[in-house]
Every structure is written in structure tokens, then in C-alpha cells.
Design a protein that fits this description.
The chain has 157 residues and is of the alpha/beta class. The protein has helices spanning 19-33, 58-66, 82-85, 94-103, 136-156, and strands at residues 7-13, 40-46, 88-91, 111-114. It has a 4-stranded parallel beta sheet. Helix 1 (19-33) crosses helix 5 (136-156) and helix 2 (58-66) crosses helix 5. The radius of gyration is 14 Å and the shape is globular.
Length: 157
């Protein structure tokens, strides 16, 4: 993997407008707080092509802002090169994992995992998509799940 010696992580959800940009922003903020931003390359992407070129969903942005987490992301779709560039690719539910596993080239060494597997309080290990819900609390729950999982992942790496 050509990554200049940096650790690399990619967060991937269906549309890259809610869960994955929240996780990207949370993880970036945690890394900066630890003074390790020079050690990591962090990004997020979509499984599907639905929102390419757009910014994160309004409620995701509101949630990040509420918790003081800077978020500035433009939606992109995961591509074959990501499986060579990133050491860790995190999905948010079993559908994401199935899609990512199906895309992963056989000669890629990337690790594809559920981000929620790093949150000991998340029994299902899924981080559910808040997009179709009607309340901001669903986005806040995603935010808190991402914080817990990202903290534990960072502590192990």
C-alpha cells in the first residue's frame, strides 16, 4: 500500500452523507486531539453513486456542529484503488460489509470491518442509517456510536 508510512482509514456507508462523514469528522478530531494528525490519512466514501459531489446531509452537519466537531466533506464513491490505499475500511451495517467484501480485489490486504465492532456497548455492531428518520436524535445516536467506536479503534492503533 502506497501510503507514505501513514496509517490509513476509510469510513464507508451507503450514500456518504450521514454516517461515514460523521465518523470521518469524529476520528479526525480524535486524532488531532492526540497530536497524531501527521500519522493518519482519513477519508469517507459511499457504496452507491446517489449523492456524489454533494455535501453531507443537513442533519449530519447540525449534529457535528452541536458537538463541536468540524465536518467538511464532499461525497465520493468508493473505488478499486481504495482497497489498495487504505489499511482499514469500515462499513456501518451488514449491507455495507457485504457490498465492500464483494468489491474488494482478491489481492488487497485491506481489513474490512464493522465500525460498531469497536464499541463494546453496541451489541448488534451495526450503526443504523438515520437518514430516513424524522428526528435529530437518530443522528446524535450515530454520532455517539461513532465516538465510542473511533476512540476504541484509535486506542488499539
Amino acid at each position: 500500500m502506497a501510503n507514505s508510512g501513514k496509517k490509513t482509514v476509510l469510513f464507508v456507508c451507503l450514500g456518504n452523507i450521514c454516517r461515514s462523514p460523521i465518523a470521518e469528522a469524529v476520528f479526525r478530531q480524535l486524532v488531532i486531539k492526540e497530536g497524531k494528525e501527521h500519522e493518519w490519512e482519513i477519508d469517507s466514501a459511499a457504496v452507491g453513486p446517489y449523492h456524489i459531489g454533494l455535501k453531507s446531509e443537513r442533519r449530519a452537519q447540525q449534529t457535528a456542529k452541536k458537538f463541536g466537531t468540524p465536518m467538511d466533506h464532499t461525497v465520493r464513491q468508493v473505488n478499486k484503488q481504495d482497497f489498495y490505499k487504505f489499511q482499514y475500511i469500515f462499513g456501518f451495517d451488514l449491507d455495507n460489509i457485504s457490498d465492500l467484501t464483494g468489491m474488494k480485489p482478491k489481492d488487497s490486504n485491506t481489513t474490512v470491518e464493522l465500525l460498531g465492532s469497536y464499541d463494546p456497548n453496541n451489541k448488534s455492531q451495526n450503526i443504523d442509517d438515520p437518514y430516513y428518520g424524522d428526528n435529530i436524535e437518530d443522528f446524535e445516536e450515530v454520532y455517539h456510536q461513532c465516538v465510542a467506536a473511533c476512540k476504541n479503534f484509535l486506542a488499539k492503533h
